[in-house]
Amino acid sequence: MRKPVIAGNWKLYNSTAEAVKLIDELIPLVSDTALTEIVVAPAFTALSAVKKALADSGIQLAAQDCFWEEEGAYTGEVSPMMLTDVGCSHVLIGHSERRQFFGETDKTVNKKLKAAIAGRLTVIFCIGETLAERESGNTFAVLRRQIAEALTGFSETESDRLIIAYEPVWAIGTGKTASEGQAQETHAFIRQLLSELYSPDMASRIRILYGGSVKADNIGGLMSQPDIDGALVGGASLKAESFAAIVRFAEFQE
Ligand code: 13P
To answer: Ligand 1: which residue has its CA nearest to atom 1?
Structure first.
C-alpha cells in the first residue's frame, strides 16, 4: 500500500559532468523497475544538468536543502520556487549534517519544511539520534522532539508531500547500520507518534525511509521490516551499480 522510495543523497560530490555520467549509467540499470520510486539529490550546481539527463526516465530530482523565503536579500540561499524552476520535485530538509555543521535547528527545519511544502515540493524530512543520545536511552525523546517541533503547523491534508527519513547519526558514513530490529522498532515508534499527533490513517500512509550505511547486502533485511518503506542512501548512491542494486533489491522484497 505504501510505494517504496529509494533516494540517493549525493552530498558534496560530483561535478556536473560526473553527475550526468552517473545518471546516464543508472537509467538503463533501473529502467525495468516500476514498483519503486527513485529519487536522486545532487548538489545545487548539478540540478539543471541532471534534470536534463533524467529526461523521461521517471527518476525524480531532489535538492539537498532549501531556504524558507521565496526571494530577498539572503546571500547564498536557494528558495523552493527556484528548486521547482529547475525541475526538482523533492527536497531534503533537516539532514543531520546540516544540523551538525550548519546550525540547523528544529525551528529552522520547521520553517523550511512548511515553505517547501507550500512551494509544492515533496519533503524528505530527516531525523535521527546521535550515539550519545542512543546510549543514554534518549532516542525516542529526541525523535519525538524533532518530529513535534518540525511538524508544528503542518496539516494532515499535506501528508502526501511528506516523507520521513530516519537516519541514526551514528550509522551515517560509518559502515555501521542499525540492526533490522533496531530500525524496525524505531520506525514503529515514529509511526505510532504520527498516529498520536495526527491520525492512524495519516500514520499508515506516510513513507518512512531508513538511512545510514545502506548497501545492497543489507537493504533486503531492512525492507522486509513492516514499517520500513525505503532508504535514503549516501555513499552507495555515488556508483550506478551499487545504487541500482539497492533499488532492485528493494523492489524484489515488495
Ligand atoms: P551513508 O549511506 O553514506 O551512510 O549516508 C547516509 C546519509 O546520510 C543519507 O542521507
So the answer is: 234
In sequence order, the β-bridge partners of residue 9 are 41
The protein residue whose alpha carbon is closest to atom 9 in ligand 1 is: 234
Atom from ligand 1 closest to the CA of residue 174: 4
- Residues 32-59: b if buried by 16+ CB within 10 A, e if exposed: ebeebbbbbbbbeebbebbbebbeeeeb
Q: Which atom of ligand 1 is nearest to the CA of 237?
A: 2
Res. 253 pLDDT band, cuts 50 70 90: low
Cα(71) to centroid of ligand 1, in Å?
A: 30
Query: Counting atoms of ligand 1 from 1, which one is nearest the CA of 173?
Result: 4
CA 21 to chain centre: 22
Q: Select from 12, 11, 112, 17 the least CA-distant residue to 68.
A: 112
| Predicted model pTM | 0.97
Please classify residue 76 by burial: count the beta carbons closer than 10 Å to its beta carbon, then call 0-12 exposed, 13-18 middle and 19+ buried.
Answer: exposed
How far apart CA 165 and CA 208 sit, in angstroms, is: 6
* Spatial CB neighbours of 72, under 8 Å, sequence gap ≥ 6: none
Please state the φ and ψ torsions of residue 61, each to the nearest 5 degrees.
Answer: -110, 130
Query: pLDDT for 162-176, tens place per residue?
Result: 999 999 999 998 888
Residues forming the active site: 95, 167
- Distance (Å) from CA 202 to ligand 1 centroid: 27
